[in-house]
Amino acid sequence: MARTHIDTDVLIIGAGGAGMAAALSAAEAGARVLLVDRSLIGRGGATVMAQMTVAVALGEEQPDSVAAHFADTMAAGRGLCDARLAAIVCQDGPAAIRRLDAWHVGWARHQDGRIRQAHAPGHDRPRCVYVDFLATGPAVSRTLRAQVQRQGNAIRRIGDLFVTDLVVNEGKAAGAVGFSLADGRPVSIAAPAVIIATGGLTRLYRRNSASANMGGDGYALALRAGAELLDMEFVQFFPIGHLAPRMIGMDPIMWDPFRYKLGGRLLNGQGREFLDEYGMPEDGRYVVTRDKATYVILKEVAAGRGSPSGGAWLSFRHVPEADLRAAFGPVIDRLAANGIDLTKNDIEVSPIAHYHMGGIRVTPELETRIDNLFAAGEAVGGSNGANRLSGNAITEALVFGHRAGQIAAERASGGAAWPEAAAQSRLDLVTAGTGQQTENPAALIVELQALMADRVGPFRTGPALQLALAGIDGLRTRLGDIPSGHPGSYDQSRLDWFDLRNMLLVAEAVTLAALSRTESRGAHQREDHPGLDEAWTLNQNLALDGNRLHLTRIAVPATAPELAA
Q1: How far apart are CA 514 and CA 452, in angstroms?
Q2: Which residues are annotated as catalytic?
Q3: For residue 523, what are the CA distances in angstroms to 129, 293, 297, 458?
Q4: Which three-class secondary structure state does DSSP give residue 56?
Q5: Beta bridge mates, 162
Q6: Rounded to an integer, what distance in angstroms lies between the CA atom of residue 411 and that of residue 170?
Q7: What is the pTM for the complete model shown?
Q8: Does residue 166 contact residue 189 with C-beta atoms inside 8 Å?
Protein backbone atom coordinates (compact mmCIF):
# COMPACT_ATOMS: atom_id res chain seq x y z
CA MET A 1 0.00 0.00 0.00
CA ALA A 2 1.44 3.38 -1.01
CA ARG A 3 2.66 5.56 1.80
CA THR A 4 1.16 8.99 2.54
CA HIS A 5 3.78 11.65 3.30
CA ILE A 6 3.00 15.00 4.93
CA ASP A 7 5.18 18.06 5.57
CA THR A 8 4.45 20.54 8.35
CA ASP A 9 6.23 22.93 10.73
CA VAL A 10 4.85 21.69 14.05
CA LEU A 11 3.46 18.20 14.56
CA ILE A 12 1.25 17.78 17.64
CA ILE A 13 0.44 14.20 18.66
CA GLY A 14 -2.72 14.12 20.76
CA ALA A 15 -5.74 16.39 20.33
CA GLY A 16 -7.08 16.70 23.86
CA GLY A 17 -6.93 19.91 25.88
CA ALA A 18 -3.13 20.22 25.84
CA GLY A 19 -2.85 19.34 22.15
CA MET A 20 -5.51 21.82 21.06
CA ALA A 21 -4.01 24.57 23.24
CA ALA A 22 -0.61 23.88 21.66
CA ALA A 23 -2.07 23.96 18.15
CA LEU A 24 -3.76 27.32 18.74
CA SER A 25 -0.58 28.81 20.19
CA ALA A 26 1.66 27.51 17.39
CA ALA A 27 -0.74 28.72 14.69
CA GLU A 28 -0.94 32.13 16.35
CA ALA A 29 2.87 32.26 16.13
CA GLY A 30 2.65 31.71 12.36
CA ALA A 31 3.57 28.02 12.08
CA ARG A 32 1.93 25.45 9.85
CA VAL A 33 0.41 23.04 12.34
CA LEU A 34 -0.60 19.41 11.99
CA LEU A 35 -2.77 18.13 14.85
CA VAL A 36 -3.17 14.35 14.83
CA ASP A 37 -4.97 11.93 17.11
CA ARG A 38 -5.73 8.23 17.16
CA SER A 39 -9.31 9.22 18.03
CA LEU A 40 -11.52 12.09 16.86
CA ILE A 41 -9.97 15.53 17.05
CA GLY A 42 -10.92 17.22 20.32
CA ARG A 43 -13.06 14.33 21.52
CA GLY A 44 -10.48 11.95 22.99
CA GLY A 45 -8.09 12.18 25.91
CA ALA A 46 -8.74 13.23 29.49
CA THR A 47 -9.93 16.85 29.28
CA VAL A 48 -13.21 16.00 27.57
CA MET A 49 -13.93 13.51 30.38
CA ALA A 50 -13.05 15.84 33.27
CA GLN A 51 -16.17 16.88 35.11
CA MET A 52 -15.12 19.09 37.90
CA THR A 53 -12.94 22.10 38.57
CA VAL A 54 -9.89 24.01 37.37
CA ALA A 55 -7.48 25.45 39.96
CA VAL A 56 -6.31 29.01 39.32
CA ALA A 57 -5.52 32.01 41.52
CA LEU A 58 -8.05 34.45 40.09
CA GLY A 59 -8.98 35.87 43.48
CA GLU A 60 -12.62 36.44 42.50
CA GLU A 61 -14.16 34.42 45.34
CA GLN A 62 -11.81 35.86 47.93
CA PRO A 63 -8.31 37.40 47.82
CA ASP A 64 -5.76 34.98 46.41
CA SER A 65 -2.25 34.95 44.97
CA VAL A 66 -0.09 32.94 42.61
CA ALA A 67 2.30 32.37 45.51
CA ALA A 68 -0.46 30.79 47.62
CA HIS A 69 -1.49 28.46 44.76
CA PHE A 70 2.16 27.56 44.24
CA ALA A 71 2.60 26.78 47.95
CA ASP A 72 -0.39 24.40 47.92
CA THR A 73 0.91 22.72 44.74
CA MET A 74 4.35 22.20 46.26
CA ALA A 75 2.87 20.86 49.51
CA ALA A 76 0.74 18.32 47.62
CA GLY A 77 3.84 17.19 45.69
CA ARG A 78 5.57 16.03 48.90
CA GLY A 79 8.94 17.60 48.08
CA LEU A 80 9.33 16.22 44.55
CA CYS A 81 7.82 18.98 42.38
CA ASP A 82 10.04 20.69 39.83
CA ALA A 83 9.46 24.17 41.26
CA ARG A 84 10.14 25.77 37.86
CA LEU A 85 7.33 23.85 36.18
CA ALA A 86 4.92 24.21 39.11
CA ALA A 87 5.53 27.97 39.08
CA ILE A 88 4.69 28.17 35.37
CA VAL A 89 1.36 26.39 35.96
CA CYS A 90 0.40 28.76 38.78
CA GLN A 91 1.78 31.92 37.15
CA ASP A 92 0.24 31.41 33.70
CA GLY A 93 -3.00 29.80 34.88
CA PRO A 94 -5.04 33.02 35.26
CA ALA A 95 -4.28 34.11 31.68
CA ALA A 96 -5.33 30.69 30.37
CA ILE A 97 -8.66 30.90 32.21
CA ARG A 98 -9.27 34.47 31.03
CA ARG A 99 -8.52 33.36 27.46
CA LEU A 100 -11.19 30.66 27.69
CA ASP A 101 -13.56 33.16 29.25
CA ALA A 102 -13.11 35.46 26.25
CA TRP A 103 -13.99 32.47 24.06
CA HIS A 104 -17.24 32.07 26.04
CA VAL A 105 -16.51 28.79 27.79
CA GLY A 106 -19.20 29.70 30.33
CA TRP A 107 -17.49 29.78 33.73
CA ALA A 108 -20.08 29.75 36.53
CA ARG A 109 -20.60 33.26 37.91
CA HIS A 110 -22.13 35.08 40.84
CA GLN A 111 -24.98 37.49 40.15
CA ASP A 112 -22.51 40.40 40.31
CA GLY A 113 -20.45 38.87 37.49
CA ARG A 114 -17.58 37.45 39.53
CA ILE A 115 -16.41 33.97 38.50
CA ARG A 116 -17.35 31.39 41.13
CA GLN A 117 -14.51 29.46 42.77
CA ALA A 118 -14.98 26.29 44.83
CA HIS A 119 -12.83 25.07 47.72
CA ALA A 120 -11.24 21.76 46.66
CA PRO A 121 -9.10 19.38 48.75
CA GLY A 122 -5.55 20.52 49.37
CA HIS A 123 -6.23 24.22 48.72
CA ASP A 124 -6.11 26.82 51.46
CA ARG A 125 -9.07 28.77 50.04
CA PRO A 126 -11.73 28.65 47.29
CA ARG A 127 -9.69 28.63 44.08
CA CYS A 128 -11.27 26.25 41.56
CA VAL A 129 -13.39 27.57 38.69
CA TYR A 130 -15.96 25.43 36.92
CA VAL A 131 -18.70 25.51 34.30
CA ASP A 132 -20.80 23.16 36.34
CA PHE A 133 -19.70 20.26 38.49
CA LEU A 134 -20.36 17.66 35.80
CA ALA A 135 -19.51 19.44 32.55
CA THR A 136 -16.37 21.53 32.99
CA GLY A 137 -14.08 19.32 30.90
CA PRO A 138 -16.55 18.91 28.02
CA ALA A 139 -17.12 22.68 27.98
CA VAL A 140 -13.36 23.37 27.85
CA SER A 141 -12.90 20.80 25.07
CA ARG A 142 -15.83 22.16 23.08
CA THR A 143 -14.50 25.71 23.35
CA LEU A 144 -10.98 24.76 22.28
CA ARG A 145 -12.35 22.63 19.44
CA ALA A 146 -14.38 25.57 18.12
CA GLN A 147 -11.30 27.82 18.19
CA VAL A 148 -9.22 25.19 16.37
CA GLN A 149 -11.88 24.89 13.67
CA ARG A 150 -11.91 28.67 13.23
CA GLN A 151 -8.22 28.55 12.30
CA GLY A 152 -9.09 26.83 9.01
CA ASN A 153 -6.05 25.64 7.07
CA ALA A 154 -3.61 27.06 9.63
CA ILE A 155 -4.27 23.95 11.73
CA ARG A 156 -4.58 20.80 9.65
CA ARG A 157 -6.43 18.10 11.59
CA ILE A 158 -6.20 14.35 11.05
CA GLY A 159 -8.02 11.86 13.26
CA ASP A 160 -7.84 8.05 13.28
CA LEU A 161 -4.06 8.22 12.84
CA PHE A 162 -1.94 6.03 15.10
CA VAL A 163 1.63 7.30 15.55
CA THR A 164 3.91 4.32 16.16
CA ASP A 165 7.32 6.00 16.44
CA LEU A 166 9.06 9.35 16.31
CA VAL A 167 11.88 10.02 13.87
CA VAL A 168 15.06 11.68 15.16
CA ASN A 169 17.92 12.82 12.98
CA GLU A 170 21.29 13.94 14.38
CA GLY A 171 19.80 14.53 17.84
CA LYS A 172 16.84 16.58 16.62
CA ALA A 173 13.19 15.73 16.19
CA ALA A 174 12.39 15.25 12.51
CA GLY A 175 8.83 13.92 12.51
CA ALA A 176 6.98 10.65 13.00
CA VAL A 177 5.61 7.54 11.31
CA GLY A 178 2.37 5.68 11.83
CA PHE A 179 -0.66 4.34 10.01
CA SER A 180 -4.20 5.31 9.17
CA LEU A 181 -6.76 3.34 11.14
CA ALA A 182 -9.24 3.77 8.30
CA ASP A 183 -7.30 1.76 5.73
CA GLY A 184 -4.00 0.70 7.33
CA ARG A 185 -2.01 2.96 4.99
CA PRO A 186 1.48 3.87 6.28
CA VAL A 187 1.99 7.56 7.01
CA SER A 188 5.18 9.58 7.42
CA ILE A 189 5.22 13.14 8.71
CA ALA A 190 8.17 15.48 8.33
CA ALA A 191 8.21 18.12 11.07
CA PRO A 192 11.16 20.08 12.50
CA ALA A 193 9.29 20.42 15.82
CA VAL A 194 7.13 17.79 17.55
CA ILE A 195 4.91 18.07 20.62
CA ILE A 196 3.75 14.98 22.53
CA ALA A 197 0.34 15.67 24.10
CA THR A 198 -1.02 12.14 24.42
CA GLY A 199 -2.03 12.24 28.09
CA GLY A 200 -1.33 9.63 30.75
CA LEU A 201 -1.24 5.89 31.34
CA THR A 202 -4.18 4.90 33.52
CA ARG A 203 -5.47 2.41 30.94
CA LEU A 204 -2.71 0.18 32.33
CA TYR A 205 -5.06 -0.58 35.24
CA ARG A 206 -8.16 -2.75 35.43
CA ARG A 207 -10.30 -0.03 37.07
CA ASN A 208 -9.60 3.35 35.54
CA SER A 209 -11.32 6.61 34.68
CA ALA A 210 -9.47 7.06 31.39
CA SER A 211 -10.57 7.05 27.79
CA ALA A 212 -9.45 4.02 25.79
CA ASN A 213 -6.44 5.85 24.31
CA MET A 214 -4.70 6.59 27.63
CA GLY A 215 -2.28 3.67 27.60
CA GLY A 216 0.93 5.70 27.83
CA ASP A 217 1.56 6.15 24.09
CA GLY A 218 3.50 9.39 24.55
CA TYR A 219 5.81 7.97 27.19
CA ALA A 220 6.71 5.05 24.93
CA LEU A 221 7.24 7.37 21.95
CA ALA A 222 9.52 9.57 24.03
CA LEU A 223 11.58 6.67 25.39
CA ARG A 224 12.16 5.08 22.00
CA ALA A 225 13.14 8.48 20.57
CA GLY A 226 15.84 8.89 23.23
CA ALA A 227 14.05 11.20 25.69
CA GLU A 228 13.82 10.52 29.44
CA LEU A 229 10.95 9.82 31.81
CA LEU A 230 10.67 11.12 35.36
CA ASP A 231 9.09 9.68 38.54
CA MET A 232 7.00 7.05 36.78
CA GLU A 233 6.04 5.34 40.05
CA PHE A 234 3.51 8.03 40.99
CA VAL A 235 0.10 6.90 39.74
CA GLN A 236 -2.78 8.78 41.36
CA PHE A 237 -5.77 6.71 42.36
CA PHE A 238 -9.03 8.61 42.70
CA PRO A 239 -10.31 7.42 46.08
CA ILE A 240 -14.08 7.44 45.54
CA GLY A 241 -14.60 6.01 42.07
CA HIS A 242 -18.08 4.54 41.72
CA LEU A 243 -18.21 0.84 42.52
CA ALA A 244 -21.86 -0.17 43.11
CA PRO A 245 -24.73 -0.32 42.35
CA ARG A 246 -24.32 -0.51 38.59
CA MET A 247 -24.52 2.95 37.02
CA ILE A 248 -24.90 3.45 33.27
CA GLY A 249 -23.97 6.54 31.27
CA MET A 250 -22.36 8.43 34.16
CA ASP A 251 -18.73 9.06 35.02
CA PRO A 252 -17.29 6.90 37.85
CA ILE A 253 -15.52 9.90 39.40
CA MET A 254 -18.62 12.10 39.57
CA TRP A 255 -18.92 11.91 43.39
CA ASP A 256 -15.93 14.08 44.28
CA PRO A 257 -17.43 17.58 43.88
CA PHE A 258 -20.62 16.61 45.67
CA ARG A 259 -18.69 15.09 48.54
CA TYR A 260 -16.71 18.24 49.22
CA LYS A 261 -19.66 20.51 48.48
CA LEU A 262 -22.17 18.66 50.70
CA GLY A 263 -19.91 16.85 53.15
CA GLY A 264 -20.69 13.32 51.98
CA ARG A 265 -19.70 10.83 54.67
CA LEU A 266 -17.34 7.93 54.08
CA LEU A 267 -18.46 4.90 56.07
CA ASN A 268 -16.91 1.47 56.43
CA GLY A 269 -18.80 -1.79 56.16
CA GLN A 270 -19.94 -1.40 59.76
CA GLY A 271 -21.57 1.94 58.93
CA ARG A 272 -19.00 3.93 60.89
CA GLU A 273 -17.07 7.01 59.73
CA PHE A 274 -13.40 6.06 59.89
CA LEU A 275 -11.13 8.82 58.60
CA ASP A 276 -10.67 10.29 62.07
CA GLU A 277 -9.34 6.90 63.23
CA TYR A 278 -6.38 7.49 60.88
CA GLY A 279 -5.73 11.00 62.19
CA MET A 280 -7.75 12.66 59.42
CA PRO A 281 -10.82 14.26 61.03
CA GLU A 282 -13.09 15.92 58.47
CA ASP A 283 -15.63 17.72 60.66
CA GLY A 284 -18.24 17.59 57.91
CA ARG A 285 -15.87 18.90 55.21
CA TYR A 286 -14.01 17.06 52.47
CA VAL A 287 -10.43 18.08 53.16
CA VAL A 288 -8.45 14.84 52.87
CA THR A 289 -6.17 14.67 49.82
CA ARG A 290 -6.59 11.85 47.31
CA ASP A 291 -3.55 9.80 48.25
CA LYS A 292 -4.55 9.77 51.94
CA ALA A 293 -8.19 8.95 51.22
CA THR A 294 -7.12 6.08 48.95
CA TYR A 295 -4.88 4.76 51.70
CA VAL A 296 -7.52 4.69 54.42
CA ILE A 297 -10.27 3.18 52.24
CA LEU A 298 -8.07 0.30 51.16
CA LYS A 299 -6.83 -0.18 54.74
CA GLU A 300 -10.42 -0.60 55.92
CA VAL A 301 -11.08 -3.12 53.15
CA ALA A 302 -7.91 -5.04 54.01
CA ALA A 303 -8.99 -5.14 57.66
CA GLY A 304 -12.28 -6.79 56.68
CA ARG A 305 -14.34 -3.65 57.23
CA GLY A 306 -15.13 -2.88 53.60
CA SER A 307 -18.53 -2.58 51.93
CA PRO A 308 -20.07 -5.68 50.28
CA SER A 309 -18.43 -5.00 46.89
CA GLY A 310 -15.02 -4.30 48.39
CA GLY A 311 -14.95 -0.55 48.92
CA ALA A 312 -16.48 1.99 51.30
CA TRP A 313 -19.94 3.48 51.62
CA LEU A 314 -20.51 7.09 50.57
CA SER A 315 -23.56 8.54 52.27
CA PHE A 316 -25.58 11.70 51.61
CA ARG A 317 -28.57 10.59 53.66
CA HIS A 318 -27.90 13.29 56.25
CA VAL A 319 -28.32 16.01 53.60
CA PRO A 320 -31.83 17.47 53.17
CA GLU A 321 -33.50 16.50 49.90
CA ALA A 322 -33.80 20.14 48.83
CA ASP A 323 -30.06 20.62 49.26
CA LEU A 324 -29.35 17.47 47.27
CA ARG A 325 -31.49 18.64 44.39
CA ALA A 326 -29.99 22.14 44.52
CA ALA A 327 -26.48 20.69 44.31
CA PHE A 328 -27.10 17.82 41.88
CA GLY A 329 -29.80 19.42 39.73
CA PRO A 330 -30.89 17.12 36.88
CA VAL A 331 -28.28 14.58 37.96
CA ILE A 332 -30.78 13.51 40.64
CA ASP A 333 -33.11 12.32 37.90
CA ARG A 334 -30.30 10.47 36.09
CA LEU A 335 -29.40 8.75 39.35
CA ALA A 336 -33.05 7.80 39.84
CA ALA A 337 -33.02 6.19 36.40
CA ASN A 338 -30.16 4.05 37.71
CA GLY A 339 -32.21 3.12 40.78
CA ILE A 340 -30.27 5.37 43.18
CA ASP A 341 -32.13 7.57 45.69
CA LEU A 342 -29.53 9.45 47.76
CA THR A 343 -32.07 10.24 50.47
CA LYS A 344 -32.41 6.50 51.10
CA ASN A 345 -29.41 4.76 49.55
CA ASP A 346 -25.69 4.91 50.17
CA ILE A 347 -23.47 4.03 47.24
CA GLU A 348 -20.22 2.06 47.23
CA VAL A 349 -16.96 3.66 46.14
CA SER A 350 -13.36 2.50 45.88
CA PRO A 351 -10.07 3.82 44.46
CA ILE A 352 -9.71 3.93 40.68
CA ALA A 353 -6.64 4.77 38.58
CA HIS A 354 -7.13 8.39 37.57
CA TYR A 355 -3.99 10.42 36.78
CA HIS A 356 -0.24 10.09 36.41
CA MET A 357 2.14 12.53 38.09
CA GLY A 358 5.25 11.21 36.36
CA GLY A 359 6.00 11.62 32.69
CA ILE A 360 8.41 12.98 30.14
CA ARG A 361 11.32 14.93 31.58
CA VAL A 362 11.36 18.46 30.16
CA THR A 363 13.00 21.84 30.69
CA PRO A 364 10.96 24.93 31.62
CA GLU A 365 10.59 25.40 27.84
CA LEU A 366 8.78 22.02 27.79
CA GLU A 367 11.63 20.56 25.69
CA THR A 368 13.09 17.09 26.17
CA ARG A 369 16.76 16.24 25.86
CA ILE A 370 16.03 15.65 22.15
CA ASP A 371 16.19 19.05 20.47
CA ASN A 372 12.81 20.31 19.20
CA LEU A 373 10.89 17.47 20.88
CA PHE A 374 8.42 18.92 23.37
CA ALA A 375 5.71 17.62 25.70
CA ALA A 376 2.54 19.15 27.14
CA GLY A 377 -0.25 18.31 29.57
CA GLU A 378 -0.31 15.06 31.52
CA ALA A 379 2.49 13.71 29.32
CA VAL A 380 4.86 16.01 31.24
CA GLY A 381 6.52 14.80 34.44
CA GLY A 382 7.76 16.93 37.32
CA SER A 383 5.23 19.67 38.00
CA ASN A 384 3.08 17.54 40.34
CA GLY A 385 5.74 15.66 42.29
CA ALA A 386 4.40 12.73 44.28
CA ASN A 387 0.74 13.82 44.24
CA ARG A 388 -1.23 16.24 42.07
CA LEU A 389 -3.18 19.03 43.73
CA SER A 390 -6.90 18.80 42.95
CA GLY A 391 -7.87 20.99 39.99
CA ASN A 392 -4.38 21.42 38.54
CA ALA A 393 -4.79 18.99 35.63
CA ILE A 394 -6.71 21.18 33.16
CA THR A 395 -4.69 24.23 34.24
CA GLU A 396 -1.53 22.31 33.40
CA ALA A 397 -2.93 21.16 30.04
CA LEU A 398 -3.82 24.72 29.01
CA VAL A 399 -0.64 26.35 30.28
CA PHE A 400 1.85 23.77 29.05
CA GLY A 401 0.04 23.41 25.74
CA HIS A 402 0.14 27.14 25.09
CA ARG A 403 3.80 27.41 26.08
CA ALA A 404 4.94 24.35 24.11
CA GLY A 405 3.12 25.49 20.98
CA GLN A 406 4.66 28.94 21.13
CA ILE A 407 8.23 27.72 21.60
CA ALA A 408 7.88 24.88 19.08
CA ALA A 409 6.73 27.37 16.44
CA GLU A 410 9.82 29.47 17.07
CA ARG A 411 12.11 26.44 16.77
CA ALA A 412 10.43 25.17 13.60
CA SER A 413 11.33 28.17 11.43
CA GLY A 414 13.49 27.14 8.51
CA GLY A 415 12.20 23.58 8.35
CA ALA A 416 14.20 20.38 8.06
CA ALA A 417 14.72 17.68 5.45
CA TRP A 418 12.98 14.32 5.91
CA PRO A 419 15.61 11.67 6.88
CA GLU A 420 14.37 8.67 4.92
CA ALA A 421 17.19 6.41 6.11
CA ALA A 422 16.56 7.18 9.80
CA ALA A 423 12.85 6.49 9.34
CA GLN A 424 13.11 3.25 7.39
CA SER A 425 13.22 0.74 10.24
CA ARG A 426 10.20 2.39 11.85
CA LEU A 427 8.31 2.30 8.57
CA ASP A 428 9.20 -1.36 8.16
CA LEU A 429 7.38 -2.17 11.40
CA VAL A 430 4.27 -0.28 10.25
CA THR A 431 4.07 -2.31 7.06
CA ALA A 432 5.14 -5.65 8.55
CA GLY A 433 2.75 -8.49 9.23
CA THR A 434 2.97 -12.18 10.10
CA GLY A 435 -0.25 -13.24 8.44
CA GLN A 436 -1.09 -15.28 11.53
CA GLN A 437 -2.02 -14.75 15.16
CA THR A 438 -0.92 -17.08 17.93
CA GLU A 439 -1.99 -14.80 20.80
CA ASN A 440 -4.93 -12.46 21.14
CA PRO A 441 -3.44 -8.98 21.91
CA ALA A 442 -6.72 -7.82 23.47
CA ALA A 443 -6.60 -10.72 25.94
CA LEU A 444 -2.98 -9.88 26.72
CA ILE A 445 -3.98 -6.29 27.49
CA VAL A 446 -6.55 -7.58 29.99
CA GLU A 447 -3.83 -9.72 31.59
CA LEU A 448 -1.54 -6.72 31.86
CA GLN A 449 -4.27 -4.58 33.44
CA ALA A 450 -4.93 -7.26 36.05
CA LEU A 451 -1.20 -7.65 36.73
CA MET A 452 -0.75 -3.90 37.26
CA ALA A 453 -3.84 -3.63 39.47
CA ASP A 454 -2.85 -6.56 41.66
CA ARG A 455 0.94 -6.02 41.84
CA VAL A 456 1.54 -2.31 41.11
CA GLY A 457 -1.60 -0.71 42.54
CA PRO A 458 -1.96 1.78 45.40
CA PHE A 459 -0.11 -0.53 47.84
CA ARG A 460 3.13 -2.17 46.77
CA THR A 461 5.74 -4.58 48.08
CA GLY A 462 9.11 -5.61 46.73
CA PRO A 463 8.11 -9.24 46.04
CA ALA A 464 4.89 -8.17 44.26
CA LEU A 465 6.79 -5.69 42.09
CA GLN A 466 9.33 -8.36 41.18
CA LEU A 467 6.49 -10.65 40.13
CA ALA A 468 5.05 -7.82 38.06
CA LEU A 469 8.33 -7.33 36.20
CA ALA A 470 8.49 -11.05 35.45
CA GLY A 471 4.89 -10.99 34.26
CA ILE A 472 5.54 -8.01 31.99
CA ASP A 473 8.53 -9.78 30.49
CA GLY A 474 6.45 -12.88 29.87
CA LEU A 475 3.72 -10.87 28.14
CA ARG A 476 6.33 -9.22 25.94
CA THR A 477 7.60 -12.62 24.83
CA ARG A 478 4.07 -13.75 24.01
CA LEU A 479 3.38 -10.55 22.05
CA GLY A 480 6.35 -11.06 19.74
CA ASP A 481 8.28 -8.57 17.63
CA ILE A 482 6.04 -8.37 14.57
CA PRO A 483 2.39 -7.27 14.49
CA SER A 484 -0.09 -9.96 13.59
CA GLY A 485 -2.12 -9.78 10.40
CA HIS A 486 -1.54 -7.27 7.63
CA PRO A 487 -2.36 -3.56 7.35
CA GLY A 488 -6.07 -3.10 6.74
CA SER A 489 -9.17 -1.11 7.55
CA TYR A 490 -9.88 -0.68 11.27
CA ASP A 491 -8.05 -3.86 12.23
CA GLN A 492 -8.58 -3.83 15.99
CA SER A 493 -6.29 -6.78 16.61
CA ARG A 494 -3.41 -4.99 14.88
CA LEU A 495 -4.12 -1.80 16.83
CA ASP A 496 -4.14 -3.83 20.06
CA TRP A 497 -0.70 -5.20 19.14
CA PHE A 498 0.76 -1.70 18.81
CA ASP A 499 -1.08 -0.59 21.96
CA LEU A 500 0.35 -3.46 23.98
CA ARG A 501 3.83 -2.77 22.60
CA ASN A 502 3.61 0.69 24.19
CA MET A 503 1.80 -0.41 27.34
CA LEU A 504 4.38 -3.06 28.21
CA LEU A 505 7.26 -0.59 27.97
CA VAL A 506 5.43 1.97 30.10
CA ALA A 507 4.26 -0.64 32.63
CA GLU A 508 7.86 -1.74 33.04
CA ALA A 509 8.92 1.87 33.64
CA VAL A 510 6.27 2.31 36.36
CA THR A 511 7.14 -0.99 38.04
CA LEU A 512 10.91 -0.52 37.91
CA ALA A 513 10.65 2.95 39.44
CA ALA A 514 8.25 1.69 42.12
CA LEU A 515 10.62 -1.15 43.02
CA SER A 516 13.55 1.24 43.30
CA ARG A 517 11.82 3.79 45.58
CA THR A 518 12.05 2.17 49.01
CA GLU A 519 9.79 4.58 50.90
CA SER A 520 6.15 5.66 50.95
CA ARG A 521 5.43 9.13 49.58
CA GLY A 522 2.29 10.62 48.06
CA ALA A 523 0.71 8.26 45.55
CA HIS A 524 3.51 5.69 45.96
CA GLN A 525 2.92 3.51 49.01
CA ARG A 526 5.26 0.62 49.88
CA GLU A 527 3.84 -1.68 52.53
CA ASP A 528 7.34 -3.01 53.17
CA HIS A 529 8.78 0.53 53.45
CA PRO A 530 6.18 2.59 55.31
CA GLY A 531 6.75 6.27 55.94
CA LEU A 532 8.46 9.06 54.03
CA ASP A 533 12.26 8.93 53.99
CA GLU A 534 13.93 12.35 53.60
CA ALA A 535 16.90 10.66 51.93
CA TRP A 536 14.49 9.82 49.11
CA THR A 537 13.74 13.46 48.28
CA LEU A 538 15.03 12.66 44.82
CA ASN A 539 13.58 12.28 41.35
CA GLN A 540 14.01 9.04 39.42
CA ASN A 541 15.07 9.29 35.80
CA LEU A 542 14.49 6.55 33.21
CA ALA A 543 15.96 6.16 29.73
CA LEU A 544 16.30 3.36 27.21
CA ASP A 545 19.80 1.91 26.86
CA GLY A 546 19.44 -0.34 23.85
CA ASN A 547 16.40 -2.44 24.73
CA ARG A 548 16.78 -2.06 28.50
CA LEU A 549 15.50 0.63 30.82
CA HIS A 550 18.21 2.41 32.78
CA LEU A 551 17.26 4.16 36.04
CA THR A 552 19.21 6.92 37.80
CA ARG A 553 18.44 9.16 40.76
CA ILE A 554 18.75 12.91 40.36
CA ALA A 555 18.34 15.95 42.59
CA VAL A 556 14.98 17.74 42.59
CA PRO A 557 15.30 21.12 40.78
CA ALA A 558 15.10 23.75 43.49
CA THR A 559 14.97 27.08 41.68
CA ALA A 560 11.77 28.91 40.80
CA PRO A 561 10.96 32.48 39.75
CA GLU A 562 9.68 34.95 42.32
CA LEU A 563 5.90 34.81 42.52
CA ALA A 564 3.43 37.51 43.45
CA ALA A 565 2.38 37.23 47.09
Answers
A1: 12
A2: 290
A3: 25, 11, 14, 7
A4: coil
A5: 179
A6: 16
A7: 0.93
A8: no
